[in-house]
Amino acid sequence: MTYSGLVTPADPAREAASAEVEAAITELFRVGRTWSKLLSERFRPELPQLAYGILRYVDMHGPLRSSDIVTTFGMDKGAVSRQISILRERGLLDASSDPDDRRSTVLSSSAAAREAFEHFSRGIRDQYASVLDDWSQQDLEDVARLIGRLTSALDAGFQDSGFRPAR
Length: 167
Prior knowledge:
Blueprint: E1 3-4, H1 12-43, H2 49-61, E2 64-65, H3 66-73, H4 77-89, E3 93-98, E4 101-109, H5 111-131, H6 137-161, E5 164-165
Antiparallel strand pairs: 1-5, 2-4, 3-4
Helix pairs in contact: 2-4, 3-4
């Protein structure tokens, strides 16, 4: 399969390593989707998985405009708007005027959502601690750093390169 905008390395060892990274990311995404579904169900069973993901993102990075969420999630504005409505109806998102542009609205997690996430996050960290119990402190720090670095590189690289699989 060829990809437009992607330069493949000429070094066979680097190309093999890149293939291993691709396979590992594919598996990480598979596990991540399952994990995200479970977390969503445990946080608030009535929330759609996408709404949970949006709420978590706003909680971590907010306040945000809905257009920022559309761009970040790569979704249709209407789909994001429906999820935002669900979250606002349940008192999990607050909306206020954007101080930089009074015509726009910014979204932030509500006090109830922040409190729920604080309690919920302790349980998630306990779960991770249990699963990663035999990992050294250095391994944990390394994987956190490398996943952060990978996420930033992929996010920037895909946005900057216009990467799209060939059809």
